Amino acid sequence: MKVEILSDAQAVALRAADLVEQALASRPRPTLGLAAGATPALMYAELVRRKTDFSAVALFGLDEYLGIGRDHPSSCASALHSYLIDRIAVAPTQVHLLDGLTADIASASAAHEAAITAAGGLDLQLLGLGVNGHIGFNEPGCDFAGRTGPVVLTEATRTVNRPNFPSDQPVPTAAVTMGVATIMAARRVLLLATGPAKAAMVARFVEGAVTSQVPASVLQRHADAVVLVDRAAAALLQRT
């Protein structure tokens, strides 16, 4: 796992956009796993500004809340459309997002895995970092061998995401997410973390033991994982 410390969130976004463009140029029909959340937003904006070519790219959503639809303004799908998908030239057949209202979550999860396999696997999986160390919605205590499927969200995750939902609507208690094994099967993983609120968890997952209680720590075992952090998020690292 390689850690790069950049000056600020904008510098992280610029470097991340460089690495995404490198990945997209590496294969004739590249595949990209998309993370929602606030941290990647600046990177997506930069890719849009650069007019990065997505015409041959297959896009795969990382996760989604259960119980709300793709058109719900607080859904991961809605965020991805707003940040990127609606601002680039891609056909609907290139976009594979998880559906929080599916009637058969097991079949939908298997179909997401099958679509990734049919596309040749993920060339690059983008990740943010949960305050409790989750990647995707793989919460502490998750199965490192897990594939795409439903999960129960911790109270910590729901609290952090409370501002993203209307005050009169509860944050969903469950989600569907690519599993840790799905993420680890990507040829490259790129995790972004910025701001002082992430500093303690950055130090734990980068320099601590590999444990399911800190899901992001599994990236220490990935052959090509890149972690981009700003100085604020890197503040508690012992080795810089």
TrEMBL record:
Limits of the Glucosamine/galactosamine-6-phosphate isomerase domain: 9-225
CDD domains: GlcN6P_deaminase
One Pfam match: Glucosamine_iso
Domain of life: Bacteria
InterPro entries: Glc/Gal-6P_isomerase, GlcN6P_deaminase-like, Glucosamine6P_isomerase, Glucosamine6P_isomerase_CS, NagB/RpiA_transferase-like
One GO term (biological process): N-acetylglucosamine metabolic process
Gene Ontology MF terms in the entry: glucosamine-6-phosphate deaminase activity
PANTHER family assigned to the protein according to its UniProt record, in alphabetical order: GLUCOSAMINE-6-PHOSPHATE DEAMINASE-LIKE PROTEIN BT_0258-RELATED, GLUCOSAMINE-6-PHOSPHATE ISOMERASE
Name of the protein described by the UniProt record: Glucosamine/galactosamine-6-phosphate isomerase domain-containing protein
Organism: Magnetospirillum moscoviense
